[in-house]
Write a structure and sequence with these properties.
428 residues, Urease, subunit C, domain 1, TIM Barrel, 4-stranded mixed β-sheet, 32% helix, globular, binds fe (ii) ion
């Protein structure tokens, strides 16, 4: 064996597990593996998880916060306007420099797979060319999946159709869309039909920005699900955002969710982003704008979370830590049951692995030895603390390491330090 991690706690609750790694794969996974590895690390009581995954991101826009100005209204539409003004000044080198800097942050957070949308409505396709290059540069440590995203509208932009095809020809992995931004509801539905046809013809997955709107009548997810079934694309199609479901009539939703199940639609919510962007036309009460995560999870749909924005025209905050999205989802979606918090942890780990079709992901013998050791005892504590990633491993090699967090205390009669951890499970 090359390496053994001793005494891990796994996300499914098993404790005291040794994980043996050989040739970049998990070779054994059980309590009490015998000695015989080049290196051993004691991870007793620490949660060891497969890597974090950001199911929905915009790497072309990341780390541009403040250029050419700040988004003062905080709305989605001002963000799109700002991005439009910024695009002509984005050089190839700046796309690459920001993306690589962000990928460094990601590795430090144990975030080793990212699905990034990339704007295809820039006449130069500069973002596509740069991110295809970045995907190659980071492939040894991050699985970067790219989605052809017609930001200015597939039909509404005069170059929308042509450039999306060009982006796919350049090697972009997934077909995107933005039906709620087309000129009319009819054109939105038509864009869904045309984009599904493109994906079916090329044998690609689909991930559309779908109904990122407070308008309860924005129902493009219905067309997306119906087209998925008609074309036999079940399980390969993602609805991202689905914000309008938050505002929809309950009776309509009672018909919509079974249709989504029939189509095996992959759901991606963006809790931090949509809490910030949605409900901006409301006085009080203000809608939250996160899709119905609780109901979609309860119905058995595969729900993942993404950050959407890290320091870009749409969002000034976020950190590269997808546990922030899980933490926000717990609050915004009333997902406070213990099993629900654990489900939110899965929404930034194993669920997006399924949505993205990642191979070799997981904690089974034969899976890639891509592992993250957290300064936390279990998934609930991980969501609460968003803790330090003590070790991040890719194919069995340690690619990031951080010292445990600890505050030194100088309080009379109290311990000399605290590390903020406290196992949420009662002692047995
Ligand atoms: Fe997005």
């Amino acid at each position: 064996m090359d390496l053994i991690l001793r005494g891990a706690t796994l996300p499914d609750g098993r404790t005291g597990i040794d994980i043996a790694i050989k040739g970049g794969k998990i070779a054994a996974l059980e309590a009490g593996i015998g000695a015989g590895a080049a290196r051993e690390i004691d991870v007793s009581g620490r949660l060891v998880t497969p890597p974090f995954i950001d199911a929905h991101f915009h790497m072309d826009a990341t780390l541009t916060y403040g250029y050419p100005r700040y988004n003062e209204s905080g709305t989605l539409l001002e963000g799109i306007e700002l991005w439009h003004d910024l695009k002509p000044s984005l050089s190839h080198d700046w796309y690459i420099e920001r993306a690589l800097e962000y990928c460094d942050w990601a590795v430090g957070r144990g975030l080793l797979a990212i699905r990034s949308h990339v704007d295809t409505t820039d006449p130069t396709l500069g973002a596509v060319a740069a991110l295809v290059e970045v995907r190659e540069q980071v492939k040894d440590y991050i699985d970067l999946q790219l989605v052809a995203f017609p930001q200015d509208g597939y039909l509404r932009s005069p170059i929308g159709v042509e450039n999306l095809a060009k982006a796919l020809d350049m090697g972009v992995d997934v077909v995107g869309g933005i039906p709620h931004f087309e000129r009319t509801m009819d054109e939105g539905a038509e864009s869904v039909r045309q984009l599904c046809a493109v994906a079916a013809e090329r044998g690609l997955r689909i991930d559309m920005h779908c109904d990122e709107s407070d308008d309860p009548h924005s129902r493009h997810i219905e067309t997306l699900a119906a087209e998925t079934i008609r074309l036999g694309l079940e399980g390969r199609v993602t609805g991202s955002h689905l914000s309008s479901m938050h505002s929809m009539d309950n009776y309509y939703v009672s018909k919509l969710i079974p249709l989504m199940i029939e189509a095996d639609i992959q759901v991606i919510a963006n809790p931090t982003a949509n809490m910030l962007l949605m409900g901006r036309h409301d006085t009080y009460p203000k809608r939250r704008g996160m899709t119905r995560v609780k109901e979609l999870m309860a119905a058995g749909l595969n729900v993942s979370f993404g950050q959407d924005s890290v320091m870009d025209p749409w969002g000034s905050l976020n950190t590269g830590d997808v546990l922030d999205a899980a933490h926000m989802a717990v609050h915004a979606g009333h997902l406070s049951g213990r099993d629900e918090i654990i489900a939110c942890f899965r929404a930034v780990t194993e669920n997006p692995a399924r949505a993205m079709g990642l191979e070799g992901y997981g904690l089974e013998i034969g899976c890639n030895a891509d592992l993250v050791v957290l300064q936390a005892a279990d998934p609930v504590e991980a969501v609460r603390l968003r803790p330090v990633r003590l070790y991040v491993m890719r194919r069995g090699n340690i690619i990031a390491e951080s010292a445990p967090e600890e505050a030194k205390l100088t309080l009379p009669g109290r311990p000399g330090s605290t590390d903020f951890t406290r196992q949420t499970r009662p002692p047995e």
